[in-house]
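Weekly structure sync, notes
Attendees: PL (lead), two postdocs, one rotation student
Agenda item 3: pending single-chain targets
PL asked that the sequence for the first pending target be pasted directly into the notes so everyone works from the same version. It is reproduced below exactly as submitted, 133 residues in total.
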Amino acid sequence: MTPDETVILTRYVRALCPQQRLDEYTPDAWHDVLGPYDLGEARQAAATVAGRQPFVSPAEIIGEIRRARAGRIRHVHGPGQSPEVPDADPDDVHAYLVALRTQRTRAADPTTRRRPLRELIACAGRHVPEEIA
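Predicted structure, written out during the meeting:
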């Protein structure tokens, strides 16, 4: 999230919770905490939290984002199963685990684009047939 998007989020929270006190420094402080998250996810999380209680904090927004991501990833992965083979050599344990974590994060994050088949095949070092291109 950019600093401008954090300003948008705090204005949205102020509209959701008019009794909550926010000042001109609130977006700066919230950006320090919410910077890594997407504005769309944060807005949706803020609306969910505001539907339950009169005040919204950055920690509650982060908690709601994590719950939403965990719910989405639960539908992508079965118990102990991954939807696709990670982009790493299984003999390189560290690289394989990093690729697996990255893959699961991609699956849980709705803002991340799905990787096209051509890109996945190319990163494996194989020739990409023209019918896929």
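Discussion points:
- The CA atoms of residues 3 and 132 lie 40 Å apart.
- Residues 58-76 form the longest helix (19 residues).
Action: rotation student to compare against the earlier draft before next sync.
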